Amino acid sequence: MTLVNDAVAPTAPTAGRKFRALTVKHLDELTARAGLSAEQRLATRAVAAVLPFRTNAYVVDELIDWSAAPDDPIYRLVFPQEDMLPAQDVARIADLLRRDAPKAEIDAAARAVRMRLNPHPAGQLQLNVPDSMPGVQHKYEETVLFFPKQGQTCHTYCTYCFRWAQFVGEPDLKMAGDDIDRLRDYLIAHPKVTSVLFTGGDPMIMGESVLRRYIEPLLDLEQIESIRIGTKSLGYWPQKFVTDPDADDMLRLFERVVAAGKNLAFMAHFTHPRELEPAMVREAVRRIRNTGAVIRTQAPLIRSINDRPEDWSAMWRTQTRLGMIPYYMFVERDTGPRDYFAVPLGQAYEIFREAYQGISGLARTVRGPSMSATPGKVCVDGVVELFGQKVFALKFIQCRDPDLVNRPFYAEYDPSAIWLDDLKPAFADAFPFEHLTLGGSAAHDLAASGPSLP
Length: 454
Ligand code: SF4
What we know:
Layout: E1 21-22, H1 27-33, H2 38-50, E2 55-56, H3 57-63, H4 73-78, H5 87-98, H6 103-115, H7 124-127, E3 136-140, E4 143-146, H8 180-189, E5 195-198, H9 208-215, E6 226-231, H10 233-236, H11 247-259, E7 263-269, H12 279-290, E8 294-301, H13 309-321, E9 325-331, H14 338-341, H15 345-357, E10 367-372, E11 376-386, E12 389-399, E13 408-412
Parallel strand pairs: 4-5, 5-6, 6-7, 7-8, 8-9, 9-10
Antiparallel strand pairs: 1-2, 3-4, 10-11, 11-12, 12-13
This protein binds iron/sulfur cluster.
């Protein structure tokens, strides 16, 4: 299969430009461009002291519609909103910033807020980490997640990120590792593992030579059938695969993975249909697919960013047209500013259903809305009336107990419920998963695939 130097790179303002992150230092200038007042800009900086902020010129110049900012969905995807955090927390930190308080004081105040935001939902730090293997999570029997140390940032941070704790400079909250030899030994000792998911952050922030050092040692392991890469690079920096200096080398690496007989799967995070419009992203998709890699798409459903059915049907249709496979609509996870972005489960189901009606059978590979909860990946399959009672029909797409996968179970309908924990069982005293124990090294939590959803 040939792949490189076979197409004219699309012309775009950022074509050929080196990636450069825009950070908190640039926040005031950028939010002024959105028309925010001085007080609003200060509040935005206060939120950005708690939650991570980072973006780049491609997102700023080619994705955001500044004439619609601050209500533009891509602006809201990237820029902190002052009501993402409790008003008293924002006011306290804004006051410290206004007074030019010592950095240590601001950091301490920000840290106190972070600790109230459930930094690692679904017990990720406790339940899934094999003994003394930082940066490794063994969630399902067949899947191991690896958080490569150099891949724990992103080309841009999403305001709703469920892995935000990776980016806030708190070593105790971070999952990251670099011992690929130990990972290899671990895989050999666990022959039922068939898939390794590189996640983050965004593994595609790494250069080819670094990624190669992680991937190559896995290629001769017969047991490994697929290598997955959770990434939002196609949405945030498609230049990675087209005009970056090592773009062609990267594609050659992908070819080698495929030639080794592995399914190389991009778990590509696209939040909004606008991310699929630039010629640069279309060219990146074409080049990646030419290597034999498969691109599956996923994103969480987020209030005020992508909560219209037409956004999802447009995404799924375009993705299918470009040769990608729609895979998941997730429910926003129970971490960070979740309450701000959450869409109630009943509404999420209706949005999914309406969007699903507007797509062809080829795009109906998508599943959702799905919650990556502690006992497993739970899909809201319907809202139905049974025995005179309105209920949620639910099922596990993955579960700690494989016997529960794909078996329907029911919960009382609650229009305000936003997560599994909010639900009460219907027609039973307990949910079928309540017997599952939540500890031990053999626990395989289920939050696989992550946004990017790295
Ligand atoms: S959701 Fe994914 S791409 Fe977005 S900031 Fe988090 S890890 Fe990065």
